[in-house]
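ERR on first pass: missing label on line 2. Operator R.T. fixed the label and resubmitted. Corrected input:
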Amino acid sequence: MDIQLTEEQELLRSSIQRFLREQYDFDERRKIVATDEGWSRRHWKSFAELGLCAAPFQESSGGLGGGSLATMIVMQEFGRNLVVEPFFETVVLAGGLIEDVGSPEQRQAFLPKVMEGDAIWALAWAEGRSRYDFNNVTTTARRQGDKFVLSGTKAAVVGAPWADKLIVSARTSGQQRDRDGVSLFVVDRHATNLHLQSFKTIDGRRAAELTLMKVEVPASQMLGSEGEGVAALEAARDRAIAALCAEAVGAMTELNSATLEYSKTRKQFGVALGTFQVLQHRMVDMFIALEESISLTQHLNLTLASKEPNASKLASGAKTKVGYAARFVAEQAVQLHGGMGMSDELNVGHYFKRISSINIQFGDPAYHLMRYAQQS
Amino acid sequence: MELELSSEDAAFRDEVRAFIAENYPQEMRVPNPETDLTKEQSLLWHRILHKKGWIAPLWPKEYGGPGWSVTQRFIFEQETSRAGTLPPLAFSVTMVGPVIYTFGNDAQKKKFLPRILSGEDWWCQGYSEPGSGSDLASVRTKAVREGDHYIVNGHKTWTTLAQHADWIFCLVRTDPAAKPQAGISFLLIDMRSPGVTVRPIITIDGSHEVNDVFLEDVRVPVENLIGEENKGWTYAKFLLGNERTSMAGIGRSTRYLERLKHIVKTEIGEDDPTFGEFIKEIARVELDVLALAATELRIVAQMSRGINPGPAASLFKIRGTEIFQRIIDLTHQAIGNYGLAIREHPVSANRFMPGPDSGHTATEKYLNSRKLSIYGGSNEIQRNIIAKAVLGL
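pass 2 clean. output:
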């Protein structure tokens, strides 16, 4: 099942690698994170020029037709370089949803700007009490003529402070935990009566709590069918997990090679750390964790690409297995680097933090383990 | 679990409990006392304990200790940590103090001990170096005798709270020709000496707790040498033993376990698919705490019968840190999506933090707690100690 990249995919990967190597090293990334905005529009435009923002979309939507494998390639390299720009939020989450459930008019209106790098998006599904459950929505959307009026709060929306547009889940009917009755809306980030409270995330990004106080949204901005938002979000989550797993694999790859290198050069008690058997075995387990993660990530992305029906269960399985593996690798990479692993100066701690956040986004390993079990 | 207390000890426990309740400064009850307090604020409790005569439970009475039994010391430790009080600076009271009264001369005792007790002097520990972590005996900081002074050159690192320190106790190499352990001396250095530079190290949680300390041609009077030249390793090992004794951290783990239970109860609905998982994990870690607490009580009982605890400290360090890391990890998981948020340093109450108040420090604690299995002799080193000293391997 090992994926052999096509010539086109290989080209995509090598062009990202070259760009990141030349223009996005760890120092550059540190500078970007430390700016007021916390991300780089200049680099974002470069990503678009490289075709990354168009890569996964279907040719019929104006994209390059790369699908989930193109996303996997991009996310893996972004994981290796700790890229903070909102490719995941804009292209994978929002772009994926628009392409999947948007009307032809909506696709026409929104996707070209996404592909050209001219619009940033964020997805607001979580709420203070929802944890990882899409059904649990208290934000309401009431129809008033040709408008919907949205009221409520959305929690921990990653990338919201950077976004031009938001996709917001809100209840058009039913009770708080009903699967039916949740709808998705495209909301302008600067809409009247929409308030953001921004905060920094563990991995150096920005997120916000959203308060909607009777935000008016034209009915034409409903994304997908009324009341069927949960199914759309579930499909988006499967794609999101495939992307996050690829990013985790990228981060783990770098952590393993940094740890291995350190264990060969760092000397204590007159010998290299790597000569201690207990550390050798630890690094073997880190190696195995990465190998299994690569396998499951590829398996999931191939399953999504071929539109096989069991993708959702597999996605939960991969989120669990890769999540635990990545956490193990990250914790051990810090441990084996000793004090240096704890310092902000070294990149190891930053991979650790990105992996911590990947493990929270769209459900932690414990949540997906239960979801996997319930689907068996 | 409680130690079976005599009526005197029970009365002592009640006295300690009441004293803490009445005297612990409200000002020190901040979200994360380890990072959110100024130097002055963090000394408030120290001064109150000093006034009461309770600042140095370990110390013999003649040097200013309270003259407590092993059991009383244990009760005090348990009560103060259960109540969530910030312990007095360990580097001063628990570490360098006992070295000075055990191995120092009369002049040193007279000069330093009262100022440690009163909190006038803040001490930091000059042990680790960039090339000497687990292998502490390989320290390279050099001290060369020149008349009545040592000239010290070197680079100490991971020095906790050196930014506040008045003094640093250092392991320095005085005999480069000897075997690593045999050429080390224990030197007390005034942080205000010319040639001492402190540079902050920011850790992955964003806080400034540790530092690099550079020593360039620092002149240290010979009278600041502890004990004999080249015998420093003996004193260092004595000190590390003290450092590890308190690491079971039962009180602290119990306190954070209660907080975890509270967060799980208030943030995760019983119908959430992971609720049952949290309950199971909490039970598992609660049993770990119980087993370690029982082990600690068993060893306290043995110590009060005069039995040397031997490398029990290593067991406490391993399990105490692993258990606390697990509790902190579960707490971070329990706040769900809000685990993405992290407080910015320096901390300000004006900055927005999302989610429940009880979870505002969960992320930084999760990151910071990774150090526990690294510092004070990594858990791998502690396992080596048990393998060698207990199992004879």
